[in-house]
């Protein structure tokens, strides 16, 4: 199961960015409806990447896709699941191949649908909440060598709460329409970082000194007192959150099979991708 822990290595900047050239289908907004799912932004974020890997691996173990893949083992299925998640997050075609039986799969995004669902955003009182986010809920890291400011609003005019150094990890709760990442600490919005300067983690998130959820100390000469908040100061706001469904085409080639299978994958309330 070692491949399971490599999933974050394939996550990269993200979901909708790579889908710009694909067919987009928007469902009716459900943010004010009582019928749709309601969830708290940031809940269960630490389980999302592993849950997605498990769901994708299972997807390649049963049904017509499994039949077309033929005699591949669990390690092959996990590797294919990792490649699939890369396509989901990047929106770009990726190829995978196993040498054992010379099976190859080209995974290509076909279409994407966005669904607006109601959610509760938890945030610090000093931070300006937004009205909507594209759901991410995965670990990100600072890739800018000069560090990146966490601002109290998604604007370069907003005040700076702290500056995270190169390599610092944090929870990306979501992405704004103006290309800012909503930064979470323990599932609570603590500010925003400019999207081009950060990216999904290239390594598994762990409880370390660079993880904002566990960090206690100084960040680029800014004291983290701002982030050491108590539960009684956290505020809540109802917002609309865009979750995704993507249809992928799997072009499968082996000695005995040449076929293309379709797979429709959707995010659930916490960001996990699964077959729908």
TrEMBL record:
Q: Is this entry keyworded Translocase?
A: no
Q: Which residues form the SH3b domain?
A: 146-196
**Record Pfam families:** SH3_3
Keywords carried by this UniProt record: Signal
Q: Does the keyword RNA-binding apply?
A: no
Gene3D superfamilies listed in its UniProt record: SH3 Domains (2.30.30.40)
Q: Which residues form the signal peptide?
A: 1-17
**Protein name (database record):** SH3b domain-containing protein
